[in-house]
Amino acid sequence: MSHGPDCSKCNDTGVIETGNNDLACSCEAGDRALFNEACVGLVTGAEIKQHYLNGSPEPLDTVPNRGYALVVDDDIINLEFVSKALEFGGYEVTRAADGIEGMARYHEREKGYFNIIMSDWSMPRLMGTKMVRSLRRYDKEQKILMMSSDPESVRKELKEFRITDVRVLYKAFTVEDVIREVLNAVEERTAA
Q1: Is the pTM of this model over 0.70?
Q2: Which of 28, 74, 85, 109 could make an S-S bridge to 178, C-beta 3.0–4.6 Å?
Q3: CATH architecture type of domain 65-186
Q4: Residues of the chain with CATH 3.40.50.2300
């Protein structure tokens, strides 16, 4: 049930405060609010936006340190946007400007170091899907999220490589979209 843009139940925060545990509201803002597995509110979409717009370098106080992320994108604007979104979501981020550099950054760490790898699809020197295929030779369990404005082409190419466990995030996306999809990928939740 959607309450529209002016929800009186949660005042557009997405969270209904109950005292001990916050509950997700059934409005649009509630769909963007983040909760842990026990359904305890971590941070609302409104808080993420406010924090992001203020340009704070620190993660939100209510968001735990979630681990490590590798972001690979030749588009510097998107690279920084996604990296900052993940940092605000509690991740420590390593950046790479293309697939070759992404592979190098991956191999600088121990297997399983990165909780998530987010990669663009179309990049010079090494396409994102080819980087993913190469990564799969070393680590079949690595959580990966591809980014593309043409997700169907990405899915088709991944299928040709017999890779079926990589999610694809459609560009353009919001800070909340990035964090929600990363949490879904890392925790292996089914996309809504």
Answers
A1: no
A2: 85
A3: 3-Layer(aba) Sandwich (3.40)
A4: 65-186
